[in-house]
Records
---
Amino acid sequence: MDYGNGCFLSNMDFPIVFLLLVVGTTTLIILRVIYIIYWSSKPVYTRSPGPLSTLIVLGSGGHTAEMLNLLAVLQKERFKPRYYVAAATDNMSLQKARVLEDSLMDEIGVDMVETAHFMQIYRSREVGQSYITSIGTTLIAIAHALWLMAKMRPQVILCNGPGTCIPICAISFVFKVFGIRWSSIFYVESIARVKRLSLSGLLLYKLHMADQLFVQWPQLKTKYPRANYVGRLM
Amino acid sequence: MSEVDHSMNSKRLVFVTVGTTCFDSLVRAVDTQEVKEALFRKGYTHLVIQMGRGTYIPTKSPGEDGSVDVDYFTFSSSIADYLKSASLVISHAGSGSIFESLRLKKPLIVVVNEDLMDNHQSELAEELAERKHLFCARPQTLYQTISEMDPESLIVYQPGDATPVAKFINRFLGFPDD
């Protein structure tokens, strides 16, 4: 009887321990996520001095033009090295970024060239692609982004849509949760969005993934109070 | 309209651009007789259409007395030059084309493509039209817009400034203000 009882208990031990482990880990992760979300929106007070490695996610067309306008006024000695990422289907954006970096080289000196890197990434969603097929392409994009992010581990991420930035921001969030790298994400919603956020902007806003989100029209700030409106980029 | 001088030295170009998109309904609308006549009545002498990936081929015309000179191409590296020399720009609603035309202070009609799946583009065109920086039309209302527009009524667009955003980011990251 006793023996049988012990056997019964030891049979039960494993599932219970396993369950406790799962519940414990999940609770810890949830607490950590809440902690991350809370601190992400707070300004960085304690920071090692010196430049910050910066990842710049280039959209396409108008998105890239807006991002380059922002980069033109950012202090290059504070944000370096700079990693430029664009969709694999978009050659124009990286070329435009190269032109900007080349003009910096002329201004500041040759040594700045080594601070700029250019790379391409699979896109999670092409313009016009349906939301359902986007799921598969998003998974591929995430795997590729994970590989790139593990190599770069940027401290600052600047993005302004479209879909390319979602896998990167999601990975950066996971990196934060597991303490791999704390990066500050700044998302600037496209100037083309006047009444509603884009899908990318809405995801980053609702999931608290962007540390700071900027909109370029005051009426959007009214609709999404956690967003910042400090003027237009174009 | 008779006071408008149509001689060679007063070339007034209308540049139509669809960017990298396919926007046949715009090209087709511009190619109609009524739109071309309306443009001519407004004093425009030349019409150049950048048709992008569209399949509708407009009719070329040498522009004899009483009509506009029509020409077209698909893509060109000199789109910026056409924009600069244009007296009127008719553009698709992409923000790149819109802001480039506004930066050059060109009278601009933005035509919204209603065939796009996620049609957020009309937001920007309508907002800027409300602020009187451009005219906003649909392919089927283009004729009406051209006939009724007064380019003088447009207000010059003041380009935005990225400095406040950069300052915000710097402050957030703990960098001192310059």
---
Amino acid sequence: MSLDVLVCVKRVPAPGAKVPLTEDGRDIDTRHLGFTIGPHEECAVEEAVRLKERHGGSATVLAVGPPEVAEQVRYAIAMGADRGVVVDTGQDELDPQATAAAIVHALGELDARFDLIMFGNESADAGHYQVGVRVATELGWPIVGGIKGIEVTDGGVRLRREIADGSEVYQLSLPAAVAVKEGLNLPRYPSLPGRLKAKKAKLDTISWQPPPGGLRKIRLRQPEEKRADSVLLGHGPEAAPAVVDVLEELGVC
Amino acid sequence: MTDTSSAQRKLPSTADVVVIGAGIVGNSVAYHLAEEGWRNIVLLDKGPLPDPGGSTGHASNFIFPVDHAKEITMLTLDSMRQYEKFGTLTTCGGIEVARKPERVEELKRRMASAKAWGIDAELITPQRVAELVPFVDPSILLAGFYTPSCAVVDPLQTGALMREHAQKRGALTVSANTEVLDIEVVDGRVRGVRTDRGDIATETVVIACGVWSPRIARMAGARIPLTPAVHQMIDVGPIPELAATGTEIAYPIIRDMDALMYERQSGADLEIGSYAHRPILHEPDEIPSIEEAALSPTQLPFTEEDFDPQMEDALELFGSILNSEGAGVRHAINGLLSLTPDGSPLLGETPEVKGLWSAAAVWIKEGPGVGRMLAQWMTHGHSEIDLHGADISRFYPHQRTPAHVRARTSEGFNKTYGIVHPREQWTSERQQRLSPFYSREKALGAEFFEVAGWERPQWYESNRDLVDKYGVEDRPHEWDARWWSPIINAEHLAMRERAAMIDLSAFAQFDVSGPGAVDYLQRLCVANVDRPVGRIIYTPLLDANGGFRSDLTLVRLGPDKYRVITGGADGARDRKWFLDHLPDSGVSFSDVTSAVCTLGLWGPRARDILSAVTEDDVSNEGFPYGTAKEIVIGSTPVLALRVSYVGDLGWELHAPFEQGTKLWDAIADAGEPHGLIPAGIGVYGTTGRLEKGYRLMGAELESEYDPVEAGLALPKVKSADFIGKQAYLAARETEPAALLCTLTVDDHTSSAGIARYPQGGEPILTEDGERIVDSKGRSSYVTSAGAGPSLGKYLLMAYLPPEHAVEGRKLKVEYMAEQYPVTVARVGRKPLFDPDDTRMKA
């Protein structure tokens, strides 16, 4: 059975160990940062491409946000997605409700119909865990989150997620939505021909103006800095007394 | 953190030297200082070890040894020997490939450089390229330049071994994760380094901080003129054919020169780097910290759109493996490297702060050699390899500004793999320094070349009709004729027949005065400077080793007062040399470059012209050769020097800068009835000079050669002591290993049947086509090349070992992969044109 799959991805900054903030503390300072999609979403794209390769059908990728999200859509195309959709909502950050509304709006605008919509379990930056559930609810489709295994069965998909002492398996009829987690697969690196194809790909752009209101971020705060440092206590047996001192200091002996 | 030293908490409170930056350069400097006998060396880095996060950690680490520049090639060869010694060098070979016909010519030119510097290389066919690297599509290639000694190296491991050696000697304290907060400077001298782990009192600091160097130098009030710039690199893999080799590198590295890219195997991956994208410059202050950086501070987010066109070029050449099933872009970075306004490294003590040394803008291929040379320089005051092209003090103030650095590096970035003509001019940041004659010159259609920011006419379009008059032949090959005009030769002939005026305002000029002036200058100069007032004194300046540091002209203006006149290209370095040796009292030094303009007037009619505008006595008796006098031209006071670099009667006229236009007009008007023409630096710097066998600093004269070899030893050695005297005396007592000769090209005809003209840098070979190397291991190559229009010959200068330095000896020069017969026309300094100097002494 062939599937037409839509993967929703989010453009997020790719910081190092320390996340730089803007002076007013309301945003991440992205002047010197690159952008990416989160690891869950990379797995979602990989899974969609594999489903297409295995069962036929198509893989479409969609991102909501400023026009720059095209970069992430193209990355997904370079990985093997067939088609890209940019939902241009302008430069302001959207809350999960507005993001979900934008996706639902776009689904109405597109001439394509999908059997399966995939989300990352949560976004790499905000981590609201909401967009997938909100979209599925709006569409009246079933959704399961935390998924680390997808199998296509007659008339539907079988989804697996890990729990503390085992795993849960769900059988869903299509259309359905799923929020996946890193570990679902090992995402591929985009190939050179894939990159060139992505560069030339024509993306569908849909503009959507978010309604006023919603959640607003007040402030971001950096956790207190901890300077990780190694201290050389010595070499060989001569180091033993120093090691004992440290252990005593730590209260382990 | 695996490096034990990184955790050393306590910094010494004093150090003989603090080296900041533990990349390949800093490690190498510290190691070689220890080898030179330094102790109490402290090496700091803000980052962790072994990879503190600078460019050393992400560089592609391959070495192509051949460069057109001797200095860079020698640093590279020295570095390769060191990497080899440390066991961190893997020879894999390398091929520069040509897609376009003009690149094939460039590869031929590289063959000449390879031969000149003694590096084994060959031109190969596309089929041979494909045999060596079977994944390359030969159908899009025209030729390859194969250098079997190309290698990959491990600079991190090398650095670790260097630290280990220095630590074993008990000479080195290493402190990683240590941030430099300030450099203390008192009275223009380094006094200490403040770090977040304590203060270190020291009188010597080396900045080896790569892209951060400007920021660290600024703490001391000095400028290191470089900019961090992006070089994009990607890794594509896994590629089964590469993985199957089971090794890091099994195939020669390819430089796809016309695409401005390279491709090298790195294990199962193909690493692709580019110098083709737009220049992407960064600010040293805005490079993210180690904590903020996703990968490392010098591996910035990849900007895909900049790389896309290169991806197509790579696919074209390496499609067979880049299309491999499952191969993807595993790693892609905007790597930071350091660019400088002229592309050369920044080495030596900074002109602003004593004791503050720069070891910046150095590539992996030069790192160990730079460390060794800098350590020699810091220890002995000179180094085995002449470093004038890399000396940080070569820059004038305007060349150290951020605006200049940005403009020139933006222009220079794409020349990294470009075909750069030896006379090629910059287009950005021009018109920085204009002589008062500029507007007149512009009106005459001057073609301006730049030296040290000065705009100087190379030739004048207004003289074009002279080309026919004198029957000057054009050069049939575009490369030989590029940045050249037959007008130069025509101006030369007109000067020899009548007279020419030449703008020499680019000279750097210093006034040295005071009761200690004579002793001070005696100490610097080979020539005796204690000559009568009014004498002009030509003198070499040597380093302690007896090699050339400079050559220049002094004028004794008074009992305690001298004017020093030196070349524009050398003025900034010379200025530092003079200031470095200035005593605490008794001598005052002032740079009068911007106060003085200079107009040369030479030719058989020069006296007629000058006497028409001055009432002063300019007769041979009243104003003999080799003297200087204050004269008045109109109402302009002029310091006139009866000297010549072009071999004809005449004067250098030095006037107040603001009266320059008046001077120009007075001479031009008076010259008209005598057929005076304006002539460019093409005559002054090349044709006139070569006919007279005059040597040029940076070409013939450099620290690797001494005055005896250059034919510039003076008849007598003065009794006063001077820098380099011992070595100079020793050189006079021994048979020189090489002698500077002037050669003539006997036949210019190429295999294509057209006349070709070597441009300089080519190897001189025996008649059998063998390289010529002297007993000190120095090869014979063309130091200067140019026409001698009055001799009707094309002239080359080259140092030759005594067995070949024989007048009449037949040799060959290799140019563009062909060999042309040449003859040694002169050994030593006696000019080919007017050997007895009767013309200039007329």
